[in-house]
Amino acid sequence: MIATIDDVMSWEPCEEYSRERIEELGDGKGALTGLEISGLKKVSIEDRLWLILREHFFKKSDLLMMKTAFAESVVHLNQDPRVANAIKFIRLYAFGEVDKADYLAARDAAGADAWADAWTAAWTAAWTAAWAAGDTGDAGDAGDAAKNAVWENHLEIVRIYLKDQQGGNNDYPKRLDRSS
Hints:
Elements: E1 2-4, H1 5-10, H2 19-25, E2 31-33, H3 34-38, H4 45-52, H5 60-72, H6 81-94, H7 100-133, H8 139-166, H9 172-175
């Protein structure tokens, strides 16, 4: 699947991404694949993910599977079993093994507080590790390094999906299933 400049503009990007800037960032190409977008070094990782993580490029079930992979990359930092259970139910829902009501019940049972605790723990651990690994670097630089490491991990997960999708592999969600 490709995204044209008109597609991107219809998604209402932030003000810094005018039509002209988008044309420039795409090196004058009128359309890019998701994999090409993922490699645009002139665009922040967060913005590349914002562009790619949508039903324009992926089936809804694939987006759900990527969310589980993102969450699983940090869930070990939070020992709340409700979060791990919610991830399990997201995966089951993505594969059509439970209905939406069961999925929503598990998500709601995890609650906003448990999810917020998981992300706070992940951020704190990543920031602390990056700061400790630095010599005498600025704490802000360490925080940026930690944030970038998380975003890089997410982008790599998306790239796995895009490469497999491009190659015609329809089993790619199962490759990222870390539950077994």
